[in-house]
Amino acid sequence: MRGDFSRSGLADSANFEAVLQQQGRVLTDADWNDQTWLSDRWRRDAARAAIGGDSAAVPGSSPDALAVVGATRSGTDITVAVNPGPVWASGLYAEFRGAGAGAEQRVAP
User: Which residue from 81, 89, 103, 108 has the fewest beta carbons nearer than 10 Å?
Assistant: First the structure.
């Protein structure tokens, strides 16, 4: 993402849980960004631990999410039709929002 962001003082190996505000100290964008980074890292790590880092899972409330409902080939192009819906993949949440069942997405051969 583009923007004018301050540096982050945290490395991937940082052993921190939170950024705490100190009385009388100005809250900087670096503090805010570091806390956001820590929260995002915790959410990803928790999802990977619960679901698995090399897997994808759809919620039980949307069992047909991302189900392949068809595929066609035209020359070297392959078009795969999948149902819209949410998925957890490698600890990240994503949602494919198609217009009804069978929204199309082109994939390289």
Answer: 108
Answer yes or no: are the C-beta atoms of 10 and 40 closer than 8 Å: no
Same structural domain, 41 and 23: yes
CA–CA separation, 77 vs 75, rounded Å? Answer: 6
With CA atoms as reference, report the closest residue to 28 among 12, 9, 47, 15: 9
Does 74 reside within a domain? yes
3-state secondary structure of 42: helix
1 assigned to some structural domain: no
Count the domains in the chain: 2
Looking at residue 63, what is its pLDDT? Answer: 93
In sequence order, which residues have a C-beta less than 8 Å from that of residue 30 and are 6 or more positions away? 6, 7, 8, 9
Identify the domain containing residue 26 by its residue range: 16-51
- The confidence score (pLDDT) of residue 40 equals 85
